[in-house]
Structures are given as structure tokens and as C-alpha cells.
Amino acid sequence: MSKEIPLATVNQHNKATDLWVVINNKVYDVTKFRLEHPGGEDSLVDVAGRDATKDFNDVGHSSEAREMLKKYYIGDLAAADIKQKSPISCRHVALALGAAFIGITLVYVIRRGVARN
Prior knowledge:
It is elongated, with a radius of gyration of 23 Å. The longest helix has 27 residues, at about 90-115. It is of the alpha/beta class. It starts with a strand and ends with a helix. The mean pLDDT is about 90. Helices cover about 45% and strands about 20% of the residues. The chain is built from 5 helices and 6 strands, in the order E-H-E-E-E-H-E-H-H-E-H.
């Protein structure tokens, strides 16, 4: 059973000499790795004490990097701090409806134009 670590605790470890990050709801102490990081120490310090999932994924780390991360694992993010993803937001519905309306209108206008010629 892994240890649950609250985000508030992770937030306290936000210095180069005490550097924790959250990646995919898992907490890692990468303090000892910061000087070895190929992207430089600053790239880790910039995300110290917070959820670095987006930053980690945006860089496109290799499978070797993901494997290496395992040795710095110290626990799971506390369940209360895990952000619940909403399956569909209102914005997504509005965009889909707008696209459907534009598509239907475009088909109507094209068919009308073809029928007149």
C-alpha cells in the first residue's frame, strides 16, 4: 500500500534543495536528480512543489525517462487533491453544436447553389 501525500505537503517542497513534484497523481522527490536532469536544474525548479504532469507530458519524455522516474517515487497524491475530469464541458458542447450548425448551413447553401445552376 502506498503512502498518500496531500498537495499541501508537496507545495512545501518547492526549493532546489528540497524538490518534490506530482506527475500523473504520483509524488516524486527529485531533489537528488535535479543536477543530472538533461533539461537542466531550472526546468525542475520551475515545477517544484506542484503538479508537473502537463509540463512532463508536453516535453515528450522517453520511456527510459519514465522508467527512471520510478526510483524517485515516494507516494500517491491524496485522493482529496486529485482533480476530477469532467467528461464533457459546456464549452465542448457549444463548440460541437456550433460546428454542426455551420456544417448543416454550408450543405444547405451548397445544395441550393447547385440546384439554381
